[in-house]
Amino acid sequence: MEYLDMYLIHIPLKTKSEVRGRAIGKDEISEMDVKGVWEMMENCKSLGLTKAIGVEMSASWHQKKLREFCKEKGIHVTAYSPLGAAGTSWGHNKIVESQLLSQIAHTKGKTTAQVALRWVYEQEVSMVTKSFNKERMRQNIDIFDWSLNEDELAKINQLPQHRAIVFANIFGPHVLVLDLDTQLNDPHL
């Protein structure tokens, strides 16, 4: 491969072998230099090997500090599984079962999923969605010709947060994602 439009960090984690659709055991995790990986991604961008580099967020974990930090540093954020990824080993239904999102959806004549996706879009964040259902695919695209009002945005911003990933690297200097969050307050970054 010679070029990527977007080079995105999915999860700051390195496994010893490919892991799909199941929980990852501690014995499968390898040491990873998150800072070094990011520096190499920056190098790829400088060399013209990729148009954009970025990190991701989930609609159930707003990561406001991270988004502010990324905006300040020119880093794009992408929401991965913005609807919660129900049915996966790490997913949940908190978004599609949210009464607040359901109420807003009813008022707007939209689905709860559309309200969640529109909220992500209004945060100036791209998103990765997946569906094999044609109707849901249409619904996922039908979020661009309407908007959420200030009151709706404020209410969504107050929803309880749910972090799907709690660790970053059990072998590195930042075992928990909370350790990485603390760095966002470092004025030297």
From TrEMBL:
Example GO molecular function: oxidoreductase activity
Gene3D superfamilies from the UniProt entry: NADP-dependent oxidoreductase domain
Span of domain NADP-dependent oxidoreductase: 61-159
Top-rank lineage group of the source organism: Eukaryota
One Pfam family in the UniProt entry: Aldo_ket_red
Descriptive protein name: D-galacturonate reductase-like
Organism of provenance: Cucumis melo var. makuwa (Oriental melon)
